[in-house]
From TrEMBL:
Biased composition, class Low complexity, residue ranges: 18-29
Protein name per Swiss-Prot or TrEMBL: HEAT repeat-containing protein 3
One Pfam family matching this protein: HEAT_EZ
InterPro entries: ARM-like (IPR011989), ARM-type_fold (IPR016024), SYO1-like (IPR052616), TPR_SYO1 (IPR057990)
Gene transcribed to yield this protein: HEATR3
Functional description taken from the UniProt entry: Plays a role in ribosome biogenesis and in nuclear import of the 60S ribosomal protein L5/large ribosomal subunit protein uL18 (RPL5). Required for proper erythrocyte maturation.
Residues annotated as domain SYO1-like TPR repeats: 417-673
Family named by the database record: Belongs to the nuclear import and ribosome assembly adapter family.
Species name: Canis lupus familiaris (Dog)
GO biological process: erythrocyte maturation; ribosome biogenesis
Compositional bias ranges of the Basic residues kind: 1-11
Region (Disordered), start-end ranges: 1-39
Keyword flag Repeat: yes
Amino acid sequence: MGKSRTKRFKRPQFSPTGDCQAEAAAEANGTGGDEDDGPAAELLEKLQHPSAEVRECACAGLARLVQQRPAWPGLARRDAVRRLGPLLLDPSLAVRETAAGALRNLSACGGFEVCDDMVTKDIMTPLVALLKECSAGLDSNEMSPQEKKDQNRNSIENIANEAMNVLWNICECSSRAVSIFNKEGCLEIVLKYLSRFSTNVDLAISVAYCLQTVTEDNPELLKSFSAPALHVLESAMLSPVTSMDYILLKTLVAGTIWNLKDIIPSKSQAEIINAILKILSEVLDLDAGEIVIRMQEAEKQRLEAAAETEDILGSANHDALMEDDEMEEIPHKRKVRRKTFISDLLPPTDKELRESIALLTAQQTALEIIVNMCCSEDPSDDEWEELSSSDESDAFMENSFSECGGQLLSPLCLSHEVHTAFTNYLIPKKIFEKTAFPNSTAVDLCSRSPTWKSLVRKMNTIQCRALVCLQSLVSLLDVDHLGGPAALQTLAQHLSQLLFSQPDFAKHVDFLEAISSALRALLQTMASNNISQCMTPDQLMTLCTASIHSSNTGVRVNVVSILGITGSVLAKEDGTLETLKTIGCFLLEVATKDPSLVVAGEALDALFDVFADGKEAERASVQIKLLSALKEFQPVFKMKIRKEGRGKYSPDQLCVLDNVKMNLRRFVAYQETVEKRLTA
């Protein structure tokens, strides 16, 4: 029912400190609700305790509790958000940080409804006040290099980081929160945090995530971006540091700058587009699998070295203890302090893991930005977002933002120049490489480590994002920019190999939806340009038979569309009668029996395409009794649209279904003439 569509990517909700899916097990066991009022009530009561340490412990307990869905009703009944909110401004910095951590977990795990409720409970008032206080506190601590080591300053930055994550989560889920962000002038505050990227990259990354969220489809905020504000983004994006954290930061800032495209001065558009694509290209250039392997080896060597150091220190401490027993002059406290000091010099235990996660997140984000560059989010999802660029290969010119002056310019348009820029930076080639399965050695190593196991899913997600990205590029770029007919045939063979190398591909829903979307777009492009198909009818039927019972509607729509595309090509060839009959029977079965009207409509559309023309198609339609089947189904389809349509489907989907209903009537009339002619 129309061309293949690609949705813009939104950040999924996640727990920064734990598994938000833990509630599923609790619900399955029948726990939750009133039973959780006990710990919730006790912890919330302790929030008012005169001791800062007790308040801090209560906040820490709530940070764990809010990750369990069964606990949410009890927390809501006891107004947890209103009781936690004031602690964001508690006299104790430690309480502020743990309170922000609890709200961060709640906003991350709770999703849209919980975040919207947090806004209703006025969490934005103390949150914005906290962000302003942290900003002022950081300014007051900038006195000397020694101050940079001050524990108070570090605490303020930690609090700001937690608060930024709360703000990001809430703005991601609530348009009201974004409006408050605009109204309260939060942009100036968060840009001040971002300007500290050289000394606190973690805080800068949190800000960049938030900025990427609030700048999307927010013309009111765009008016607030002055030339100095844009220079802060430029400085962060062009940072020469190449650590994984900075790679992630630069990728996120590139996404934010893309959201600001409507205020980019016309003579700077080419430089900015190329700067963004240069960063995305460099991110995708990195071999994540090999880097994960190296990082795991580095972690292993570091831990072994640390163990040896501990053994040496243990031996030294034993000797010192023997000496203490004899002399009884060296206080025991000194030995404890010495041991703690040595331990503090050891690197963080998760350094390599953090860097690996940062790289994988950067690559996933880069792919999502490319998809969003290709797609708009208007109701039809069929109009490409407008942008422009040139094929210049260098990054920003020094004064690319200096002429902003607040003027709003016309949107950029997707032109021949940006197609060329994509090609110059080898974007299609790099995306193609990311569609391959993750490095098997890296997957095996991560699978065997409890702390690294989560990276397997991240690597698989990158493959799926690359496939969706490939779908966008195949739909967007012309054949020449994709490498010509031979390159498309090679790509089709590659996708077929990916698909059929997994015997149980139908069980991997995310992968199946992504690869079927890419195949659909590719086969459509090949058919439109008269490029011969590489997948055999047997392969296609294997794909469709295995996928048509998927619980994912998108998968079913894709495989039905793929059959329609292939069938319409085969209908014009000789000797394809039996294959067309198989395709026709399959599509007819889906059209009449699939529970989703969207899938049924797509199947009917595919039937119209396959049997619209061609001698073989006409013979096949008569032999499978297509006309009588469609005549029988026509009133059923009409009734289903009338009964189910308004309650289950969007206005856009209903509009498409009405078109299918009208085309069905016309197609039945056409088939009547075909049958009369062939049976005369």
